[in-house]
Write a structure and sequence with these properties.
It is a single chain. Helix content is about 60%, strand content about 10%. By secondary structure, the chain is mostly helical. A 3-stranded antiparallel β-sheet has the order 1-3-2. Strand 2 and strand 3 form a beta hairpin.
């Protein structure tokens, strides 16, 4: 597992099953069996996904007798969003330049137009 928290977050978010689990937990805490229900994979496979999410800090797991509730911990996602935000200006400027270029192309007369 990556040593730094940001790498652990991105590694955990790289898997679609783990993202689906996080989407489910965004609705509220849930036991492992409920989390596993919509997936066509084994309970041990779900448990492995949960361990990755727990190690990355994206979820917390509790214990209440036989019930093992999992809950979303969104702080690592905020850190990832903050990191990505630094690149937003670059993306926006790139799109602005592309938009300007496309406008220039639309206003230029076409070279192959036939004059009457």
């Amino acid at each position: 597992m990556p040593a730094d928290p940001l790498s652990a977050t991105f590694a955990a978010l790289a898997d679609p099953t783990r993202r689906a689990i996080l989407a489910r937990l965004a609705l509220g805490e849930s036991p492992v069996t409920e989390i596993a229900r919509p997936f066509k994979i084994s309970l041990p496979a779900i448990t492995k996904h949960l361990k990755v999410l727990e190690r990355s800090g994206l979820i917390a797991r509790g214990r209440d007798a036989q019930w093992r509730p999992c809950r979303l911990q969104a702080a690592p996602m905020k850190e990832a969003v903050d990191w990505l935000h630094h690149y937003r200006r670059h993306w926006e400027e790139s799109f602005d330049r592309l938009d300007e270029y496309l406008k220039q192309l639309q206003t230029k007369p076409k070279k192959h137009e036939h004059k009457k």
